[in-house]
Design brief:
The protein contains 15 helices and no strands. The protein has 360 residues and is mainly alpha-helical.
Length: 360
Amino acid sequence: MAVGAAKKAAPAKSVGESAAKSTGESAAKSPAASAAKKTANKTAKKTAEQPAKKPAKKTAEQAAKKIAPAEHVGKKAAPAKAAAKKTAKKAAPVKKIAVAPPSGESPTALVRRARRINRELAEVYPYAHPELDFDNPFQLLVATVLSAQTTDLRVNQTTPALFARYPTPEDLAAANPEEVEEILRPCGFFRAKTRSVIGLSKALTEDFGGEVPGRLEDLVKLPGVGRKTAFVVLGNAYGRPGITVDTHFQRLVRRWRWTDETDPDKIEAAVGALFPKSDWTDLSHHVIWHGRRICHARKPACGACPIAPLCPAYGEGETDPEKAQKLLKYEKGGFPGQRLKPPQAYLDAGGKAAPPLGAA
């Protein structure tokens, strides 16, 4: 730009020189002529320099302005980058809860409410335990299979005769099915249950040396044994945490809106995500005990429920405290429990042992 300006200024210099030359020719070599020549040269030089400086300054300013927008954009881009980083952080994989919480309740609030319910139930049932009588893993396994579609009380009244006659897997595997059916008749579905207990006894004898395996994948291969039965054995015979999703458990966790699932495996996954694994076995006992004693299927005793303030379904049952008290079952209502041989802690807390089969 400065060079172009200088070239444009060149005619001004030529005009000055022509004027000086013309003056010199007219006035010969007079002092006035020399002064005029110097003045013309000075003027031409000044004229040439001024246009050159102004465009250069203007060009620098324009360049600065052109750079400024880019710098401004850079400043705006910084928050965008931070937002992108924040979004990426939020999108990072986290532990998922299998089922969405109830409307209006955040996942965190659901976890807190669920754990508080479990803590409250632990205070109400500090002596909660499996309500099947057993002396070893084999007896617990058989008793759990027999408990399908009947009560633990009925199973406990039936198994003493069964285990007295067939104390080991080898004995039951070699049993006469008709004799076993006669013993199991009070449990209902006695033919199917006979096939299951004889079949699992044969599998234990042939595949596991007469011992009940302590792994989930081995237990579920046995005839009549599913995840629920396997977790009962693992949690109560081997001390390995598991969630027992029986009918009571399914009903209550949906009533409390811990999950809307109906499939037992999905319920297990959804509820398991709300609690640490170490709580699973005791949690199962607390929920099942509450379902049997207070939170019944048809007439829940809402007016006598210790977790009523935490229950979204409060009011579905009897809310009058006196009327609700009459609905309580087992030791909460002053009646015998389900075990013929309950733990001492249960008896110390005021629990009563169940009567044997055929007792008045």
